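Run folding on both entries below.
>entry_1
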Amino acid sequence: MSINREEALRVKELAQGLMKKSDFTAARQLAMKANKIDPTMENMTHMTMVDQETVQKAGASSPP
């Protein structure tokens, strides 16, 4: 396994942990970073899209 692939997997795991803690903005940033490091990783585009939708919904439902 290449170093880049290992780093991308590490960053992806961090992003998944942040999503579980509902820190969607930071999770999305890390998911995008993982995708940039290794664009061949599975589900990264889906992960960033789902996260973006969640952030938008959370922002819309937040009180002013």
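>entry_2
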Amino acid sequence: MKHNYSSNRKEEIPLEKHRKTKTHSSNFLNYTHTLEESEVLKHLNAVQKLVEEEAIKTIHYLSL
């Protein structure tokens, strides 16, 4: 279910009043990490998330 109703363009509104949208060209992509570095970062983030979740469980258990 959509939350917002999509509106149609109203032809009576002048072009200069229309909302401007931007698009990115396909050459816009700028990689700052190699694929290997990205994979390492993903794994490190996953490990950090697991450690944080386990720490929360431990703190909760100790507070009982």
